[in-house]
Amino acid sequence: MTQYTIWGPLEKVISHRQRVTRLYRKSLNHILSWDMDRNKWRDNAVRLRVVFDQFKDVKDPRLAKSILKKAEGEFFKYQHPQPYIAPWAVGGTLHERNMPPHPKTLELLPIQQEWLDEWIEYYSTHPQD
Predict the structure, then answer these.
(1) In this model, does residue 50 exceed pLDDT 90?
(2) In terms of C-beta density within 10 A (0-12 exposed, 13-18 middle, 19 or more buried), how is residue 81 classed?
(3) b/e sequence 25-39, b meaning 16+ C-beta within 10 Å
(4) What is the pLDDT of residues 97-109, one digit of tens each?
(5) Helix boundaries (H) for the chain
(6) Which of 28, 39, 81, 99 reaches 20 to 30 Å from 74, CA-CA?
(7) Within a 10 A sphere around the Cβ of 84, how many other Cβ atoms?
(8) Is 58 within 8 Å of 64 (Cβ atoms)?
(9) Is the dihedral of CA 96, 98, 104, 109 positive or negative?
């Protein structure tokens, strides 16, 4: 059986408490990806909290580590294939969408500038009704 971990090289660096906290927060975010309705999300979040609270007082480090590995496996099994990313975050729907164009992009060619000047001159001398 494959051992699942969502931390990679960080697995040895961060503490067990940090790993549990991060798993909980990632799980909450993925629950929100499955259903954007906040009322349903809140119900699921409360159920998730109950599951995490069941194992809160485990003192045996080996048992706690095995529970965490199993929970990470569950997370991998049920994570959303396309998680919601905030629009302003990197990879989000609005990230770099309205960046200002390069200054050269807004420059007109000489012939285009002539056409624009003619157009402005024509419409300034011929008022429209």
Answers:
(1) yes
(2) exposed
(3) eebeeebbeeeeeee
(4) 677 778 888 788 8
(5) 16-34, 38-54, 61-78, 110-125
(6) 39
(7) 15
(8) yes
(9) positive
